[in-house]
Amino acid sequence: MVELIRYTEKVNDLLKRYGVKFGIYKDHIFHEQLFPFDCLPRIITKEEFEYLSEGLIQRVDALNAFLNDVYGEKNIINDNVIPSEFVYSSSGYLPQCEGIVPPKNIYSHISGIDLVQAKDGTWFVLEDNLRVPSGASYPMIARSICRRASPMTYVHNEVAENRNYAQMLKAVMDYVNTGGINAIFTPGRMNAAYFEHAYLAEKRELYSSMQMMS
Q: What confidence category does residue 159 fall into, taking pLDDT thresholds of 50, 70 and 90?
């Protein structure tokens, strides 16, 4: 880890050279800034990671089941598990999608679950991002650059692999594909997650293209 700290400036220079940026809107004005790199990683043990993974998989399965029910039989509402206004008053609820069942009953193909850890070590879910979550590309390219800047850090430490994300994403896309072409859509250069759209579309494992949404 000490070696990686020494190369912090080099890593940040490479992130800047590759244009690793993200955008935010403040006062209705688009601002773009470099991805902040922290040379001191947050270490999560293998046992804790497996515990979190099991819970997150369960949570995403439950969220997909919830969406399937809300747009289908609505048992969760009819059985008074949750008030109907919780669903129908939501800005994300689309009555036009009533009765529409996506392939394999999967509504959220990529789920971004934000986690926070309390002082006592307990993990909590801050929010669930199910529509178009982004962020996977940043640790991917940051890890790739860190390996180049300080390869011995990864030789002497057992670090979980993340280079297979593109293959995993392709597997999901292939699983729900009904005969079309896998593609990554982007609203364009001014979108906050444009770097992610471009980066993932360029991954050879996806064999995908990036297309502008009209």
A: confident
Q: What residues have CB less than 8 Å from 151, skipping those under 6 apart?
A: none
**CA distances (Å), 90 to each of 111, 129, 202, in order?**
19, 15, 35
Identify the three-state secondary structure at position 115. strand
Q: Binning pLDDT at 50, 70 and 90, where does residue 205 land? A: low
Distances (CA, A) of 158 to 50, 147, 211: 15, 13, 38
Phi and psi (nearest 5°) for 184?
-110, 120
Any idea what DSSP says for residue 81? Answer: S
Mean pLDDT taken over the chain: 86
Amino acid at 1: M
CA–CA distances in Å: residue 34 to residues 17, 144, 145, 170, 178? 10, 17, 15, 27, 38
Phi-psi region of 190 (alpha: psi -120 to 50; beta: other; left: phi over 0): alpha
Query: Tens digits of per-residue pLDDT, 75-131?
Result: 999 999 999 999 999 988 999 999 999 999 999 999 999 999 999 999 999 999 998
d(Cα 68, Cα 81) in Å, to the nearest integer?
15
In terms of DSSP H, where are the helices of the chain?
Answer: 2-6, 8-17, 46-70, 75-78, 84-88, 137-149, 151-156, 165-176, 194-202
* Residues 173/198, Cβ–Cβ less than 8 Å: no
161: DSSP letter: -
Give the DSSP H or E segment for 124: strand 123-129
